[in-house]
Amino acid sequence: MRIAIIGCGYVGLVSGACFSEFGAEVICIDKDKTKITEIKAGKIPIFEPGLDDLIAKNVLAGRLSFSSDLGANVGRADAIFIAVGTPSRRGDGHADLSYVYAAVEEISNYLTSYTVVVTKSTVPVGTGQEVEKIIKKSNSGADCDVVSNPEFLREGSALEDFLRPDRVVIGTNSDRARQLMRELYRPLSLIETPILFTSRQTAEMIKYAANAFLATKITFINEISDLCEKIDADVQDVSKGMGMDGRIGSKFLHPGPGYGGSCFPKDTLALARTAQKAGNPLKIVEAVVSINKNRKLKMAEKVISACDGGIAGKTIAVLGLTFKPNTDDMRESPSLDIVSGLQAAGGLVKAFDPVGMREAEQLLEGVIWCKSAYEAMEEASAMVIITEWNEFRQLDFERAKKLMKSPILVDLRNIYNPSDMLNAGFKYSCLGRTVVSK
Ligand code: NAD
To answer: Strand (E) positions, 22-100?
Structure first.
């Protein structure tokens, strides 16, 4: 089977590498020529564990290639996957579908034999229909089916998620397209992965509903965490006790500084807008969007209050910038709001992230970039852990105390134990747990 993937971002690169690993002949196409030149030279533009090796292996095997020339490459494909970005549209929060539609227009004229056009990008209900219209308008004779195949991978564990997913969702009413998609995902059927066939609109809806549900779960435990602080309960134990209930499950039930990343913020907002437009507002999702936004802003205040209410002229060490560990993705990361909040209060921010610094430097100004967590701690009046990278889980606090002006730790991921931190001589502040000082 021959596959073309349009868009070499997180989803396009991972899908391309994994489909070629399944045995398909894959060409990944991106309009960004520099990106393609770099990939061809073996430089993978994103940080995703294991991805560079998988790409190298399949390129060597002759199953995977890259190009910026769409015209020369999509005509031969049995299936064309659209994996371009669908960010929030400026001003109104709807999904910006301009990249999807532009890509579809570009491929339309090259559809010369039966082709399945697959939207892998996260797109609102009804987009498949629009894609079909665009193709018919520019190439009325095109023999194709438009299928929805939303992607559920998580950055940081994307390969595992793609190669061993909980399920694959395929939305189409065409038997021919269903047959081709079934064949493409046969390696997953062999390992008993459920393949759920639905209508196209239903598949589009499943993706948004799933993301909104997970964002709601995170927001729920974040609000419970705030309440725990007020009533002297321990959110870690609450979360454990809730998660042991099979109906609830323990995942996505950890308090933090608010969800970020390239998906949850824009997808919750887009779903809320779709629902409003359909005259059926989703009040829960609207509340989640607003609570999460405020939470990120409030986290800077938490650091300020740990410093006895003022940080003007003080240095704050920030450990972790990406929206979660094992990715370099900074999109909508809580660190963006927290760092800006600290700077607005007069603080000087020294920051370190194991892989996200290059991305962060483009989004944050006035920060002193450090080469290690300990360099960030030098002369700091407090440090704040924003991302729970493994290397922050076993900090040397004796060394930290010698480097810092005052031993204050604000742990926005609850990776340390309050009593251990008190024993280490730190003034410790975390989420949803009362810290009793000695
Ligand atoms: P991304 O921004 O990392 O990459 C998109 C790529 O598409 C860019 O390299 C861009 O240059 C390229 N592109 C845009 N228009 C093009 C065109 N006309 N022709 C060729 N290339 C073009 O995006 P991403 O994070 O991979 O997300 C892609 C889609 O997948 C989004 O809809 C997103 O919501 C969804 N998704 C993302 C994740 C994730 O974790 N990142 C997970 C599931 C679903």
So the answer is: 25-29, 64-67, 79-82
CA 422 – CA 306 distance, rounded (Å): 14
CB 20 within 8 Å of CB 63: yes
For the stretch 227-250, pLDDT in tens is 999 999 999 999 999 999 999 999
Q: Which residues touch 282 (CB under 8 Å, ≥6 apart)? A: 212, 271, 272, 275
Q: Which residues have C-beta atoms less than 6 Å from ligand 1?
A: 6-12, 29-32, 35, 83-86, 99, 102-103, 106, 121-122, 151, 153, 155, 262-263
* Residue nearest atom 3 of ligand 1, based on CA coordinates: 9
> What distance in Å separates the CA atoms of residue 165 and residue 179, rounded to the nearest whole number?
20
Residue of 8, 28, 228, 263 marked active site: 263
Q: Which atom of ligand 1 is nearest to the CA of 7?
A: 7
Phi, psi values for residue 247, rounded to 5° = -75, -20
Contacts of 179 (CB under 8 A, 6+ apart): none
pLDDT digits (tens, 9 = 90+) for 277-290: 999 999 999 999 99
